[in-house]
């Protein structure tokens, strides 16, 4: 400001910033570094000790199953982190996310299990004063989409209500949603007990089990809709009948695949047997050499050279096997349940197994059937959020609502509507999380989602979201979810250390990120 | 500059504003002409902010009338005032320091490819307009994507002024635009005001404490004291001493000196 008079203009000062400096002013750059470090750690440490390999996909962290499981954890967190992060950018918090997950899962499972009813309580005086219930409507056999819709009505309304209270009262959202946290968790437990053990409410369990595996309900030719496992367990005659209508080339390719699998399994067995057979001999040879018994050593050496393992004979593929494999290929008759709880990218994972031979476990079988569907849902949501936040009018409104509320209001931005919408979106993300979980595992538990709100906020902070609002990106939120999800796995594989160190690590990362974010924010505000 | 020959762009007649039993304004008449800078001067508490808040639709006057281009108007919200062509640049400037020049320029009035809040921003076009509009009043932004926080106070003023003009302000109200700035940036802002003055069709109401600035740039002066106009005139009408005296709320410099001597 107080420069000596010169020909330099104010605008020249910005131009002198180097590209390197502007790269480091990007809020995501630190987190991306940490993420890459964790990727490296997971790849490196998950390779079994002694089996040196430069191929990071060799270890458990990035084999097919590792990718499937790790991405699931990351995607689940990523979904709620989007809701939490956008809301923080607009200057508010949602502590009710975890309880909302529990509530939504329970609500959905209960509707799927017992249907939906509107019941009106009233006081009856017949035979002494007591409360009676009048059932206005009761719909059973509700489809997945119906259950999701009913649940969304509740959760989105609750999200709206929290937002409405916050903008109307001017109370900190921290307090309002803290109320939501306890309220929803309590409501979930109370209703689950009530439904599980009517009329003695104290005895009921706070879970919903015994849901069918809805995503795996298929339409079996000649038998109608049934669960996949039940179809595979049909009698041999039934299975043969089903196979009769299957085209020949389908049967041929299924048979080829099954034969490949049988061969792989047999090969794996042979290898294991060989290793088992030779290993004791090798140990004996070492002993013999050490003790100087050359005769013995020669004998053992000879034995090792002539050691033969009779190769395991591959299992014969029967028509029954082919029929069962065919049942595995029948698409779900509940596409919505399958969309949320099923698998994606199966063809790629099949291809990686046969013929690429990577997606294979120790026993020669296919390792992972695909990725969890929640990964795809996360990708879709993240793309939408990215476009909205950085490319649309709504995005500018979100930034300004959190960045300078008064300025946004003065320029006609409907800040109350922005905030309420984001509370609703946060509830939406929590419900999506719960939907995926319910259809993946076919159960619900009142304890689901515990502490998830804090994880979501942590992921957002790690990803460069500033807690005071107005600053952050969707890319950052995604990276934050990766870091949070990867840390646990990466530390688990470090030899000789307690796995819980990942929490220590995350704690440090959270504080470091918050400091870094604040520094970047101040630099942009012109205070540094 | 255009003088009395034209119609006033905005005119108030007998504006009164009471806050309960307290009279903040007591019959204020004001005429502001296109192409003119009208300095509104007065001590703290004189009622300057109250007057411009009435003009910009924040307060409703208790009594009196406002005319814009000869037509009587009545504002119930700031939106009404903006719609009538009155653009107010407040001291805090209503800017979001964390986002870019362009995003601030179009805040609340973004240009999108299809309507609705989820319309995709026309980034390139908005960048171009923001840069052009700011260049028109004398500031070359190096990069329309730079965060406003990295701009100087003077540049921020310019951004807020350019924004108000672009979105149709015929009357530009500037509330102490130089008060929080360093010397060099104060001059930058005055230059900006001069540019707008030279457009010839925009009337500027400039609230300031700084007598030097007022004298440098204003064509006409109104002095408020205790909610009333105690002096009005063109720069020619008022001698230097008058301005000093009126700024002090009508007291003679001599009186003040006496007061201090006690
Ligand atoms: N909203 C209000 N309620 C009550 N009194 C007010 C309000 N706004 C301003 N005033 C009073 O009106 C008088 C004029 O204030 P203001 O217009 O802010 O003066 P200036 O901007 O000239 O310093 C002050 O005495 C102030 O206390
Ligand atoms: Mg004031």
Distance between the termini of chain A: 13 Å
Multimeric status of the protein:
heterodimer
Count of domain modules of chain A:
3
Cα end-to-end separation of chain B = 46 Å
Instruction: Indicate how many domains the architecture of chain B comprises.
Output: 1
Content of β-strand of chain B: 15-25%
- Characterize the overall form of chain B: globular
Number of helices of chain A: 21
Q: Decide which structural class fits the backbone of chain B.
A: alpha/beta
How much of the sequence of chain A is in beta strands? 5-15%
How many helices of chain B? The count is 9
Sequence of strands across the biggest β-sheet of chain B: 6-7-8-3-9-10
List the secondary-structure elements of chain A in sequence, H or E: HHHHHEEHHEEEHHHHHHEHEHHHHEHHH
Summed over residues and divided by their number, the pLDDT of chain A gives a mean of: 87
CATH 2nd-level architecture of chain B: 3-Layer(aba) Sandwich
Helix content of chain B: 25-40%
Main beta sheet strand tally, sense and closure of chain A: 2 strands, antiparallel
Strand order of the largest sheet of chain A: 1-2
Low-confidence stretches of chain A: 1-6
List keywords for this structure.
heterodimer; A: 528 residues; mainly alpha; 3 domains; two-stranded antiparallel sheet; globular; disordered N terminus; B: alpha/beta; Rossmann fold; four-stranded antiparallel β-sheet; 9 helices; 24% strand
Describe the fold and architecture.
The complex is a heterodimer of chains A (528) and B (262). With 528 residues, chain A is mainly alpha-helical. Helix content of chain A is 64%, strand content 7%. In chain A, the strands form four sheets. Chain A has a two-stranded antiparallel ribbon with strand order 1-2. In chain A, a hairpin with a 3-residue loop joins strand 4 and strand 5 (224-227). In chain A, helix 5 runs parallel beside helix 7 and helix 15 packs across helix 16. Chain B has 262 residues and is of the alpha/beta class. Chain B has a single domain, classed as 3-Layer(aba) Sandwich (Rossmann fold), CATH 3.40.50.300. Helix content of chain B is 34%, strand content 24%. Chain B has nine helices and ten strands. A six-stranded mixed sheet of chain B has the order 6-7-8-3-9-10, sandwiched between helices. Chain B has a four-stranded antiparallel sheet with strand order 2-1-4-5, covered by helices on one side. The radius of gyration of chain B is 19 Å and the shape is globular. The N and C termini of chain B lie far apart (46 Å). The chains are: A mainly alpha (528), B alpha/beta (262). Chains A and B meet through helix 1, helix 15, helix 16, helix 17 and helix 21 of A and helix 2 and helix 6 of B. Adenosine-5'-diphosphate is lined by residues 19, 22, 24, 42, 44-50 of chain B.
């Amino acid at each position: 400001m107080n420069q000596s008079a010169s020909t330099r203009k104010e605008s020249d000062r910005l131009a002198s910033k180097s590209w390197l400096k502007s790269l480091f002013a990007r809020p995501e750059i630190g987190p991306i570094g940490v993420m890459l470090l964790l990727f490296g750690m997971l790849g490196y440490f998950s390779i079994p000790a002694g089996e040196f390999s430069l191929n990071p996909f060799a270890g458990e962290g990035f084999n097919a199953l590792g990718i499937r499981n790790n991405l699931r954890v990351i995607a689940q967190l990523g979904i709620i982190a989007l809701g939490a992060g956008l809301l923080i950018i607009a200057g508010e918090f949602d502590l009710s996310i975890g309880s909302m997950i529990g509530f939504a899962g329970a609500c959905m499972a209960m509707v799927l299990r017992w249907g939906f009813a509107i019941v009106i309580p009233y006081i009856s005086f017949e035979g002494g004063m007591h409360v009676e219930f009048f059932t206005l409507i009761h719909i059973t056999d509700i489809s997945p989409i119906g259950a999701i819709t009913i649940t969304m009505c509740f959760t989105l309304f609750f999200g709206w209500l929290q937002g409405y209270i916050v903008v109307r009262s001017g109370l900190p959202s921290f307090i309002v949603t803290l109320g939501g946290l306890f309220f929803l968790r309590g409501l979930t437990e109370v209703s689950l007990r009530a439904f599980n053990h009517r009329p003695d409410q104290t005895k009921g369990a706070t879970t919903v089990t015994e849901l069918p595996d809805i995503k795996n309900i298929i339409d079996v030719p000649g038998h109608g809709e049934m669960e996949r496992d039940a179809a595979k367990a049909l009698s041999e005659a039934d299975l043969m009948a089903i196979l009769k209508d299957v085209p020949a080339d389908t049967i041929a390719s299924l048979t080829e695949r099954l034969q490949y699998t049988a061969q792989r399994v047999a090969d794996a067995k042979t290898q294991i047997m060989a290793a088992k057979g030779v290993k004791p001999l090798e140990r004996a040879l070492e002993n013999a050499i050490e003790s100087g018994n050359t005769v013995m050593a020669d004998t053992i050496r000879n034995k090792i050279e002539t050691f033969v393992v009779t190769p395991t004979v591959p299992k014969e593929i029967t028509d029954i096997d082919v029929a069962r494999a065919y049942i595995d290929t029948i698409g779900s008759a509940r596409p919505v349940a399958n969309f949320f709880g099923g698998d994606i990218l199966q063809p790629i994972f099949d291809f990686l197994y046969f013929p690429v031979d990577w997606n294979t476990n120790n026993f020669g079988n296919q390792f992972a059937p695909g990725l969890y569907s929640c990964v795809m849902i996360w990708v879709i949501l993240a793309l939408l959020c990215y476009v909205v936040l950085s490319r649309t009018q709504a995005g500018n409104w979100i930034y300004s609502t959190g960045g300078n509320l008064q300025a946004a209001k003065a320029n006609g931005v409907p800040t109350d509507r922005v905030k309420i919408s984001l509370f609703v979106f946060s509830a939406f993300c929590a419900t999506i999380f719960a939907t995926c979980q319910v259809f993946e595992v076919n159960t619900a538990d009142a304890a689901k989602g515990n502490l998830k709100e804090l994880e979501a906020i942590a992921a957002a902070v790690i990803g460069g979201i500033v807690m005071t609002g107005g600053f952050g990106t969707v890319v950052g939120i995604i990276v934050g979810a990766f870091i949070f999800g990867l840390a646990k796995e990466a530390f688990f594989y470090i030899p000789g250390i307690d796995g819980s160190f990942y929490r220590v690590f995350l704690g440090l990362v959270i504080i470091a990120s918050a400091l870094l974010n604040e520094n970047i924010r101040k630099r942009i505000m012109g205070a540094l | 500059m255009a003088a009395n020959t034209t119609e006033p762009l905005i005119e108030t007649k007998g504006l009164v504003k009471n806050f309960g039993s307290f009279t903040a304004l007591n019959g204020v008449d004001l005429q502001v002409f296109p192409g003119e800078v009208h300095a509104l001067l007065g001590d703290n508490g004189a009622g300057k902010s109250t007057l411009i808040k009435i003009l910009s639709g924040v307060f409703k006057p208790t009594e009196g009338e406002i005319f814009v281009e000869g037509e009587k108007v009545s504002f119930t919200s700031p939106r009404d005032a903006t719609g009538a062509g009155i653009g107010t640049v407040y001291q805090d400037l209503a800017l979001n320091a964390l986002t870019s020049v362009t995003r601030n320029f179009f805040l609340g009035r973004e240009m999108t490819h299809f309507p609705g809040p989820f319309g995709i921003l026309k980034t390139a076009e908005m960048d171009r307009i923001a840069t052009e509009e700011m260049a028109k009043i004398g500031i070359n932004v190096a990069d329309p994507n730079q965060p406003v926080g990295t701009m100087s106070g003077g540049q921020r003023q310019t951004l807020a002024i350019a924004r108000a003009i672009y979105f149709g302000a015929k009357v530009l109200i500037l509330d102490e635009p130089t008060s929080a700035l360093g010397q060099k940036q104060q001059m930058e802002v005055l230059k900006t005001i001069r540019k707008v003055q030279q457009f010839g069709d925009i009337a500027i109401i400039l609230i300031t404490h700084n007598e030097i600035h007022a004298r440098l740039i204003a064509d006409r002066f109104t002095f408020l004291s205790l909610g009333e106009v105690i002096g009005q005139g063109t720069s020619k009408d008022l001698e230097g001493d008058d301005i000093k005296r009126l700024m002090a709320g009508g007291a003679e410099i001599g009186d003040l000196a006496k007061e201090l001597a006690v």
